[in-house]
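User: For my dataset I need records formatted as: sequence, then structure tokens, nothing else. Please produce one.
Assistant:
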Amino acid sequence: MASVETSSSRPFHIVIFGASGFTGQYVVEEVARTACEGPGGTLRWAVAGRSQSKLEKVLEQAAEALGKPELRTVDIIVSDVKEPDSLAAMCKQAVIVLNCVGPYRFFGEPVVKACVENGAHCLDISGEPQFLESMQLNYHSQATERGVYIVGSCGFDSIPADMGVLYTRDQFRGTLTAVESFLRFKATSIHDATWESAIYGFTDRAHLQSLRRKFNYKPLPVVGAKIKRRGTLFFSSELQQYTMPFMGSDPSVVKRTQRFLVEQHQETPVQYGAYAGVGGVGNIIKMLVAGVMFLFLIKFSFGRNLLIKVVRCTVHGMESGVSCLFLTAP
């Protein structure tokens, strides 16, 4: 059992690293709301990042938004992902590090390494399969030896999918063999780090396949009817709009969990398919034009820089998460 107790040398249950970033600010407010639910009724936590002044500003904003003036006295740790000693010092003070600094393919590994070496559990919100699986390949043995948990994808990627499959399995009468999830979207803007992750994720797809071969996995057993994979683009009767396979990390995260349950607990695996609505014919045309331009530009460094620095891209963002789950059984 992993330790969650603080000590004189490790005073904080949680340290939010990257607390002044786009996502970190939301995490600060949520932790502040739920701090009284921690062990013994008091969760001891701190914020961390590169800039003392920015962290102070985040705490000030949270104090005003939540009507909690005591947040102004939350501890601050100055730590930089490019300075290993500062990361080590941060990790030594934390039971759990919530890492909000992305893109994780560029900034995630130093935090994982520091957590493993200094005995802190690490949680992140990465939706980048290459990062997630690289960390498993490179740090699983060390983390196991030290009793450290490294838990990725603790955000929209991929809590609804992964936990949704497990919850559905537990509530299902009989043996659940397959689940499909469908997402409905509305137009919104995408955050810079997420956009950059998408660009480099598509660029480096070949390396992901090479990485996966290193695990030397055997195919998971199929129980019941094999799930029928839908087309690249199809009209969904469930969403009443055109739909395509979801290109996020959900399928790979769910599959990793199912593999663990099969290999470590001899449980029956659940097959999983993820899909996302794209709307009507007009949206399809716009998506095809944008997709062709995107796939062309990511082939070149100047194109990737153009997409990152110049293009202000409006894409689809989540409206209601997993809108429905469809089940198949023997």
